[in-house]
Amino acid sequence: MPGLFKWFLIFVVATCCLCVHSIDVSTSWLTDTIIGTNATLQCGWTAATGETPATLFLSPNNNSNANYFTCEIYSVPPHACTKDPSALEKYSIATSLRGSVSMLITKLSCTDDGTQYYCIVSNNSKPPAISNSVLRVKVPPTVPTLSNVQTGVKENSSITATCTAGVGYPKAGQIVWKAYRNGQSVNLPPEIVITSMNASQPEDDKCTVRTQSSVTLKANRLHQNISLACFVTNQDFKPTAPDTCTDTKSDLCAQTEPAVVTYPVSKMNLKREPASTLYEGARVTLKCQAEGNPLPTYSWTKIGDENRKLFVVMDGLVSTITLTSLNKSLDAGDYSCKALNIVENEKYIFLGFISLIIDENITQTSTTIQKTPTTVTTVTKTPTGTGSPEATTVISESGNSSNTVSMIVMVLLVFIYRCDFICNHNCSVCCDHLSSTESQR
């Protein structure tokens, strides 16, 4: 018997426990809870068959002595709700429907963050059913501002920029950097240094989270016209940064002006056109281009004739001079190109040289005057007692009536020389012939 009574008590207790959970309550925020806006908390319930909820309480921090609202929910909606004097003006009943009552909270502020609201439903005969929701006030990130911006720098100095922004709450975001050149997105230079730190001010409340991010880039001429932009990202508001900083407010970005990297004039290139052999009467153009920012100015000088004025023309970034009707004595020689620029009040000069070699014009011109051709005859004579021939040149001009006589005389001279050579080598026949000839004379 005692055992049966024990099991009966267990059955009664279990049944009572099931009765406690015959009313289910839930709470949810119907709108986003962004600072400065309104939020709506809905309290909903469902009851088992035969159950009739009687009263609903909306209370902050589960304080039964400070119920903001007490609603009689056993009747047909709209339900009658009474506001407690402790509830601020910002609280009101938004809707009262079958199975739900909604509370409106206006003008959310940081002081509302973290408040836990309870919805308590009771039927007066059983323990109440309770549900709660914590109000987390969301603070969006702010538009970033730039400071300490230095984009006009000398080569090997640092391009700098500091970006400061509120990155949002309760989920804090971050600041990211992107680079652009001539309006096109480019990769961040690998040598760029980025540092970030908390930048909250003493007067900031807990919902204000500021971050400061700084970039430093040692500039070289390859960084010319590069522009840096910082973007604020936040998981709740803007998870990723857009491709470009088009609108600072909607894109949450700030962008620097394009970098101007100045550097002294250097790396001169000199050439002439045409590059082939130059002849008198021809035309040539000398070209000179040097690197430098600001762009250099140019001047040309003919070495040894420094007072000569040369007409300089700029062809884009190339300085040119053109010489026409070349004259060997006047135009041949060395020319210097001087490039000059000024960087941070310092003057820089780069000199380059180019030489012009001008050949005489070998083109023959026709004439109406007939010139007598020149004939060149070479006679070779070997001196006595040597084996080395000696060259002797005889030049004659033909074209008159004595040509035949001249030729005969030359043949005789050649014959005499030859015989004289043979006599010296014991050729008796020739010597006798030579002696006979001389005796006849």
Key terms:
441 residues, mainly beta, five-stranded antiparallel beta sheet, five-stranded mixed beta sheet, 5 helices, disordered C terminus
Q: Which percent band covers the strand fraction? A: 35-45%
Average residue-wise pLDDT: 81
- As residue ranges, the low-confidence spans are 4-20, 364-441
Spatial shape: rod-shaped
User: What does the radius of gyration come to?
Assistant: 55 Å
The oligomeric state is single chain
Strand-pairing-aware structural class: mainly beta
Major sheet details: 5 strands, antiparallel
Query: What percentage of residues falls in helices of 4 or more residues?
Result: 10-25%
Number of helices: 5
Distance between the termini: 191 Å
Strand arrangement in the largest pleated sheet = 5-4-3-8-9
Number of strands: 29
Main location: membrane
Keywords: Disulfide bond, Glycoprotein, Immunoglobulin domain, Membrane, Signal
GO molecular function, one term: cell adhesion molecule binding
InterPro entries: CD80_C2-set, Cell_adhesion_signaling, Ig-like_dom, Ig-like_dom_sf, Ig-like_fold, Ig_sub2
Compact overview of the structure:
With 441 residues, the protein is mainly beta. The protein has helices at residues 2-20, 248-251, 328-331, 403-423, 428-440; strands spanning 23-29, 39-47, 55-60, 69-72, 80-83, 91-97, 100-105, 116-122, 129-134, 145-150, 152-154, 158-166, 174-181, 184-186, 193-198, 210-218, 226-233, 253-255, 260-273, 278-279, 284-293, 297-302, 312-315, 318-323, 333-343, 346-356, 358-359, 374-381, 390-397. The chain is built from 5 helices and 29 strands.
